[in-house]
TrEMBL record:
InterPro entries: Rab-GAP-TBC_dom (IPR000195), Rab-GAP_TBC_sf (IPR035969), Rab_GAP_TBC_domain (IPR050302). It comes from Callorhinus ursinus. The gene is GRTP1. The keyword ATP-binding does not apply. This is Growth hormone-regulated TBC protein 1. May act as a GTPase-activating protein for Rab family protein(s).
Amino acid sequence: MESAGSARDRVPRIDPYGFERPEDFDYAAYEEFFSTYLVILTRRAIKWSKLLKGSSRVQRSGTVKRYIRKGVPLEHRACVWMGVSGAQAQMDRNPGYYHRLLQGERNDRLAEAIRTDMNRTFPDNIKFRKSADPCLQKTLYNVLLAYGRHNQGVGYCQGMNFIAGYLILVTKSEEESFWLLDALVGRILPDYYSPAMLGLKTDQEVLGELVRTKLPAVAALMDGHGVLWTLVVSRWFICLFVDILPVETVLRIWDCLFNEGSKIIFRVALTLIKQHQAFILEATSVADICERFKEITRGSFVTECHTFMQKIFTEPGSLSMATIIRLRESCRARLQAQS
């Protein structure tokens, strides 16, 4: 027990992004993991510095893809995300556009919807508290307001606050966060946040089909209890694992998401389910299934982000974009027929 107590003294109570560690945080396990991860991070940082050679511009390539899968050091993350997602190119093509959006026409409904969610966004993060200086709530409000004006078909939807919040913590830039949000909502996750959320509903069904093929026993359990996938995974998709998996793990997932697109979400979801298949199959009721799907997003398997990221590229087996596109077409058609 002594080592847990001393780990609690050595590991900061607030993480590098400003989040307070939860009450039940396992300091000893985290310290053990982080001591090995720090060695990996240092090695990756040296490799990235050599690759970038002082440039802040990154373009997609086989080497960059390999490097991203092994993790992007925090100091390079913003420029890598901007480069591989196409956000940098959009920002370069539209100088001053973000600031013009902020000066745009008033929309009280949009402003009120965003304002309502401000205090609910990361209450456990000291940088988002009203007492913080600067308080990131204002930055977050601006990014979401500008995006709502830019993409009026979407406006503002709950869940976007968490995503924009993470973007701000990583980029420390309003304008870059805006263009990265545009890359995600406009291109990488089409139709996730539109009023009908058809893209989101479709992808939840696609996950169900992938589970049916790759993990049929889990699909049979879900069917047997009449559990819809949206009941257990909707927040995984809407929040892109924010507030579900540990921060560092989420950022490692996003490294790949910006570069390789939405199939990464399916890889993560399938890995979580496959790794805990036996545990999920012990469920005896709908409530039990829901609880177990919450449980599988906690613990050392997801905290140890480096091993976890290696697993998402091996555990689910082959998963081509062509397969996902085909499944999306059939699932979307089914949903539209139902509605």
